[in-house]
Amino acid sequence: MDETLIEKVELGNGQSLTIEDLSKKISADAYQVIVEARVKVAVEEDLFQAGELGGISMDDIRKKVGDQVEFEYRTERNFIMAPDKEAVFKQLVDTFKATLMPYLSKSDFPAKLVLKEYSKM
Q1: CA 38 to chain centroid
Q2: Sign of CA dihedral 60, 68, 43, 94
Q3: What is the C-alpha to C-alpha distance for residues 64 and 3, in angstroms, rounded to an integer?
Q4: Pure H helices in 25-84
Q5: For residue 44, what is the DSSP state?
Q6: Helix axes 58-65, 109-120, angle to 10 degrees
Q7: Contact between 88 and 77 (Cβ < 8 Å)
Q8: pTM of the predicted structure, to 2 decimals
Q9: Rounded Cα–Cα distance for residues 20 and 93 (Å)
C-alpha cells in the first residue's frame, strides 16, 4: 500500500497532524479510498498542568508508553469509481477537519492522549 502525504498541519497546541492518502485500486475502474490522519505526541513533562499527573511519575509513564504516543484516525469507502475517487477523498478529509480537528487542536489534547495510553497499559 502506497502512502502519500497529502497535508501536514501545525495544530494550535504545538502538535503536528499529518493526513495521508492510503487509497488502493481494487479493480480496473474502482478504488478503496482511505484517509489516515496521525498526531504523534512526544511524552514530555511540560504537557501537563500542575497536579494533573496525580502522583504518577514521568519515568513511570515513559516506562509504560515509551517516549511517544500516537493518535490515529482512519476512514475508508469501498468500491468508489475512478472518476469519483478525488471527490470522495476530499469529502472524507473535509469531514475529518470539520469534526475532529477542533478536538485535536485543544491545548489539553496531548496530555489527555498520553494519560489515556498510560491507563490502557
Answers
A1: 3
A2: negative
A3: 29
A4: 58-65
A5: -
A6: 70
A7: yes
A8: 0.88
A9: 10
Q: Which three cell numbers stand for residue 1?
A: 500500500
DSSP type of residue 23: -
Sign, CA torsion 56/58/62/68: positive
In the chain, where the domains are located? 4-120
C-alpha cell at 19: 493526513
How do the pLDDT tens digits run along the chain, 121 residues long? Answer: 567 999 999 999 999 999 999 999 999 999 999 999 999 999 999 998 877 888 889 999 999 999 999 999 999 999 999 999 999 999 999 999 999 999 999 999 999 999 999 999 7
Cα angle value 86/27/94 (rounded, 5°) = 20
- The angle formed by the CA atoms of residues 79, 80 and 86, to the nearest 5 degrees, is 150
The residue to which cell 475502474 is assigned: 29
Using CA atoms, how far apart are residues 74 and 57, in angstroms rounded to an integer? Answer: 32
Give me 88's grid cell: 470522495
